[in-house]
Amino acid sequence: MITTAFLLGALNRGGAETLVLDIFKSGQNKLNFIGIYRKEGNLSENFTNCGVRMIKIEPGGKFDVMYIFRLRRFLKRNKVNIVHSHQLIDGAIGMLCCLFSHRRSVLTFHGHELNKPLLMQLLRKTVLKYNHKNVFVSNSQLGYFQKHNNINFRQQVIYNGINLDKFRQKHSIREELCIPDNTLLTGSVGNFTPVRDHLFVCKFLKELLEANIKFVHLFIGSASIAEPQILEECTNYCQNNLPGAQVIFLGHRNDVPSILPQLDAFFYATRTDTFGIAIIEAMACKVPVFVNNNEVMLEITDNGTLANIYETGNVKSLLVLFIDFLKNKNTYLSRAKQASEVVNHRYSINKHLENLVELYKTL
After folding, report:
1. 164-346 CATH
2. I need a labelling partner for 233 at 20 to 30 A (CA). Which of 25, 85, 87, 363 fits?
3. pTM of the model
């Protein structure tokens, strides 16, 4: 059986960490996994209880060269075949740990790596050139990397996967927040980072309020550590422009899979996403999804057949679409049910694992 070591930094909640956690929980019969991480985080307990051996190997300092050698010794001792990373720094570490050995290094890119310092850009080009396999989460993302990094080999697209078992959890968010059953409940999921345009959703909610449509909207996601002003701007906007409306900023939640199926509609606005796990999860829950016509969103929604597409940055476009939804709910719910069937097959964690196994066999 192939032994794969996943390199992780801090065990904090993020798209990559959630994906790896789902891989660990679902793929133990297909592959032998080891999780190696540097720092604890808010997902530490989840990883500890996932059934996969988790090892903390912590650098002694910022420039601890011996860290690579300690890690190489561990990998050799445990007969690791594949070192799989999901962040650029870990990818570089994994590449170094595989030099002059039988091991193979894999790095999954989850972002566009925009606006990185020159040193990080050079590191990215080096990893892209010398890594054994570079994995991208969408064709749109791969096209971007090919255009800006001049790569045409050692690459593969593997869509992210979701663990459908998570959505069997039950917790009434309406009871928790005292929201009546007949109140329109909408939501958005995603941390407040430059990748997403949560402020656009806030502006749409203002238009919804002015159209005399009553609702409760839930924002689920944490503030960016680097740019906390993004969340602050959204909360200030809602306080100043949506008097009387219930817009609730829930912050970080561990029970998103139980909240999503309870939503009447899901709104999303992206700037530079490369996949969009939250959208896939909402579609899997048969929730009508409204997302802008960004290139990658068109890709993962089959050019809009799996979701409801509005024009990027156009509040009126979304408002017209959503009012039509309110008038023809049964039609939209029927489409959402059909979309969930496609999503549950194409983007399941089992499908993702099948693709990983096939990739590892070629290395």
Report:
1. 3.40.50.2000
2. 87
3. 0.91
